[in-house]
Recover the amino acids of this structure.
């Protein structure tokens, strides 16, 4: 009986097309560790270019600062000049928007679009696939030149912007290449592409991203990241006072 | 006359059948008269209400592909779009003010904002940005104040809708009063987010309102412009480098993931404390660009001296736009009123489709009853034919019968409908909920008989009579006199 069992196992494993299930926990941990900065702060300049069939092209340049270990970030708008100095400051679960014209802060939501682009405020905070998603199904595939795992994910909580996500993850180094976001009724809402990464220390950071709105044809946003740094920042950067001070 | 006498005699002889058909016609026409009169009254009520209180007779807007209403773009996927401003506003305003048929003009802007007390968001409101003087002149007496009062000329502030104030009180347990300060965060995606701190000058309600208008608060136009980014720098264009737009211009998956190496080398960048403090550089240009554009308005509303001149005034304005090469649009009140303006029309279409279905059923029933009647009178018709009655005489006799039934019972239906409407008009119908308040154009509805409905009912009656008699006539004309006499 035992021999039959062993033989069956060998048969299943050697059956053409059979692939052992990857270690999703390890993949998620690898993705999370590459995009989170528990040991260092992180800063970069992002150029956000948004195309809209009605509104035309909008270009925005922002400086982002992140301190993931304390759940903090600050985004300061550098361009256009009319929005220069506006900022989004996150401290733990609070997200404030600052308008230098009125010199006032008001609470914002992670689920809101960032300044009318296809990016969400939540895209700028620390992401955790291990915490937020589980794998519902998976398959192997090819994306361009790269062998990938295609993972169908379901949200574990209601804090995420999208309850369903489909991920294309490179097999050799666990970099996320593409993601499709779905609503609760499985409507395809957004597709994201991550075709370029920059290695800083032991981290791989997506230096170019493309977000395509699947509801409005022609609406898409490219984010390009430069001036990337993992140097620790001063504590004052993550305060309302700093946001007000740079605007004086 | 002979035809009429014979038809009348036949109807009297077949009392039961005549009565069945008659009741059916009476009932149908009564419903038609009551239903259409009520809908016409409601449509007139909504029209008068919107023209007198919110839209005026005509609305001038900038050019747009999507329908524009005073509440913003109405299609869901375009809710976030920036509304176009009226180009050459002052030129158009001057033309409007000097037009002999124009009684009053008022510019208006539209926006949406999140309301915060301190930093906490407590609700949302639609905003109508107005010039207080022009607004009061255009819509005198359309507001009722529960607290505080209207904006003074040149004063900044918010006149908060009573409904929104009570929603905030219910949900957040915060009572907003006149004199309080609130933060408004403009959520116009076209120009990014903006915050303004404003004093609540008053809490109001539109005297004749509906669920859409209940969500509207009034704000001075300059604050609205600021929230909407209608500033001197609104059209400022920022250029991006080629490598910052490569994906967006050619989003091809094979190109994106066709390269051998997608990972850039290890680079790092550092910022000093001084860098961090001077990160924004010079902000003086920003302050200049953020000055509001005094000519930026989304709508110019026109009230006319005489409603009958709408067509001529529209043509005058279109001629003016063409002569001056201005890309603007002028349209009637309905385009600005949004879906509620169209509601009465939609209801009328639905109601008339239902009536049409009922009419088809009625035609079939009447036709069947007439066919039975003709079969019973086969001997009589055969004899008439044998005595020399022509086909035209038989045809005329049957058509006369059906038209006689239709007219007599149709008239009874019209009278019954008029009586019911008279009763309802005297007592009034109280709207049971907000939905009916919208349809009724107020809390109590007083329907009146519509002359158009009477004419429409008469046409329907005659059509039913004519169509119902087609098949019975065909059967009657097929009767062979000899066979008919032998069949009895």
């Amino acid at each position: 009986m035992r021999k039959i069992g062993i033989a069956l196992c060998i048969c299943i494993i050697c059956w053409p097309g059979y692939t052992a299930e990857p270690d999703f926990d390890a993949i998620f941990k690898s993705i999370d560790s590459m995009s989170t900065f528990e040991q260092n702060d992180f800063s970069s300049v992002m150029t956000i270019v948004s195309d809209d069939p009605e509104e035309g092209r909008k270009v925005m340049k922002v400086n982002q600062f992140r301190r993931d270990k304390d759940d903090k970030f600050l985004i300061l708008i550098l361009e256009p000049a009319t929005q220069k100095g506006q900022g989004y400051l996150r401290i733990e679960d609070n997200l404030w928007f600052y308008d230098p014209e009125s010199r006032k802060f008001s609470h914002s939501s992670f689920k809101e679009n960032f300044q009318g682009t296809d990016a969400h405020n939540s895209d700028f905070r620390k992401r955790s696939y291990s915490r937020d998603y589980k794998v519902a199904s998976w398959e192997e595939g090819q994306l361009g030149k790269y062998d990938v795992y295609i993972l169908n994910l379901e949200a574990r909580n209601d804090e995420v912007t999208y309850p369903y996500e489909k991920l294309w993850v490179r097999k050799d180094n666990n970099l996320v290449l593409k993601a499709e976001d779905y609503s609760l009724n499985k409507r395809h809402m957004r597709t994201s592409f991550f075709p370029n990464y920059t290695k800083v220390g032991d981290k791989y950071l997506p230096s170019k991203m493309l977000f395509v709105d699947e509801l409005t044809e022609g609406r898409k946003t490219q984010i390009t990241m430069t001036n990337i740094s993992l140097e620790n920042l001063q504590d004052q950067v993550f305060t309302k006072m700093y946001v007000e001070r740079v605007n004086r | 006359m002979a035809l009429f006498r014979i038809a009348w005699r036949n109807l009297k002889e077949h009392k039961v059948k005549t009565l069945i058909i008659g009741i059916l016609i009476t009932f149908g026409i009564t419903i038609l008269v009551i239903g259409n009169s009520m809908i016409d009254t409601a449509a007139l009520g909504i029209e008068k209400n919107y023209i007198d209180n919110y839209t005026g007779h005509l609305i001038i807007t900038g050019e747009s592909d999507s329908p524009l209403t005073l509440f913003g773009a109405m299609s869901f996927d375009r809710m976030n779009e920036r509304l176009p401003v009226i180009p050459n506003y002052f030129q158009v305003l001057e033309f409007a003010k000097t037009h002999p048929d124009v009684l009053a003009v008022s510019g208006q802007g539209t926006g949406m904002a999140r309301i915060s007390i301190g930093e906490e968001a407590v609700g949302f409101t639609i905003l109508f940005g107005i010039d207080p003087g022009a607004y009061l002149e255009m819509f005198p007496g359309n507001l009722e104040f529960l607290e505080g009062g209207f904006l003074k000329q040149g004063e900044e502030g918010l006149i908060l809708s009573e409904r929104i104030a009570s929603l905030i009180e219910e949900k957040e347990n915060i009572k907003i009063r006149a004199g309080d300060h609130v933060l408004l965060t403009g959520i116009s995606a076209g120009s990014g987010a903006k915050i303004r701190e404003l004093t609540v000058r008053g809490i109001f309600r539109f005297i004749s309102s509906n669920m859409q208008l209940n969500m509207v608060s009034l704000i001075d136009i300059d604050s609205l412009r600021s929230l909407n980014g209608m500033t001197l720098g609104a059209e400022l264009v920022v250029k991006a480098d080629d490598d910052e737009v490569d994906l967006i211009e050619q989003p091809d998956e094979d190109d994106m993931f066709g390269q051998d190496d997608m990972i850039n080398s290890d680079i790092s960048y550092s910022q000093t404390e001084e860098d961090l403090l001077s990160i924004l550089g010079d902000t003086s240009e920003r302050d200049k660009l953020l000055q509001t554009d005094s000519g930026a308005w989304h709508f110019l509303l026109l009230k006319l001296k005489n409603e009958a001149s709408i067509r001529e005034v529209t043509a005058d304005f279109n001629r003016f736009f063409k002569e001056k090469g201005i890309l603007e649009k002028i349209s009637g009140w309905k385009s600005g009123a949004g879906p509620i303006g169209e509601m009465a029309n939609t209801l009328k279409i639905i109601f008339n489709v239902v009536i049409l279905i009922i009419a088809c059923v009625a035609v079939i029933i009447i036709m069947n009853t007439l066919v039975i009647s003709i079969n019973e009178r086969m001997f009589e018709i055969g004899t008439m034919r044998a005595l020399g009655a022509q086909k035209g005489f038989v045809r005329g006799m049957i058509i006369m019968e059906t038209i006689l039934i239709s007219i007599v019972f149709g008239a009874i239906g019209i009278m019954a409908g008029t009586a019911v409407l008279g009763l309802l008009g005297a007592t009034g119908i109280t709207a049971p909920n907000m939905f009916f308040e919208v349809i009724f154009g107020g809390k109590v509805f007083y329907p009146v008989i519509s002359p158009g409905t009477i004419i429409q009912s008469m046409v329907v009656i005659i059509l039913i009579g004519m169509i119902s008699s087609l098949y019975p006539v065909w059967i009657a004309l097929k009767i062979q006199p000899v066979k008919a006499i032998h069949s009895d």
